Amino acid sequence: MAPISSLWSRVPQPERRLAEASRTRVLVVEDDLLVGAVAAEALEEAGFTVLSAASAEEANVILAEEAPDVLFTDINLGGWMGASSPNRPSRHSPDLP
């Protein structure tokens, strides 16, 4: 049987997850300011670094300059509708989840 200390070291520790989250930059794009603020606050409380934009145009500037790790957006946000839209986020960051 493995010693308890070796088993414990394999259990995810909240401090480790928080440290990993704090290095992850999330771009929250939401044109409803209340929804955007709530989402940003929840992500910040979870330890993420949050960038915010209230429009597709504003988000495109941030995407080009800041290179966030994750995009959290309103699926019906004006300016990013459809895969053929010239303003779609993948134009700047094709691998952005």
Number of H- or I-type helical stretches: 4
Average pLDDT: 74
Biggest sheet character: 3 strands, parallel
Low-confidence stretches: 81-86
Principal-axes shape call: globular
Q: Based on the structure given, which CATH architecture of one domain is correct?
A: 3-Layer(aba) Sandwich
The CATH topology of one domain, please?
A: Rossmann fold
| Residue share in helix | 25-40%
Organism: Microvirga arabica
Pfam families: Response_reg (PF00072)
Protein name: Response regulator
Keywords: Phosphoprotein
Provide the fold topology.
Blueprint: H1 4-8, H2 14-22, E1 25-29, H3 33-45, E2 49-53, H4 56-66, E3 70-73
Parallel strand pairs: 1-2, 1-3
InterPro entries: CheY-like_superfamily, Sig_transdc_resp-reg_receiver
Organism: Microvirga arabica
Keywords: Phosphoprotein
Task: Explain what this protein looks like in three dimensions.
- Strands 2-1-3 form a three-stranded parallel β-sheet, with helices on both faces.
- The chain has 97 residues and is α/β, with parallel strands linked by helices.
- The protein starts with a helix and ends in a 24-residue tail after the last strand.
- It has helices at 4-8, 14-22, 33-45, 56-66, and strands at 25-29, 49-53, 70-73.
- The radius of gyration is 17 Å and the shape is globular.
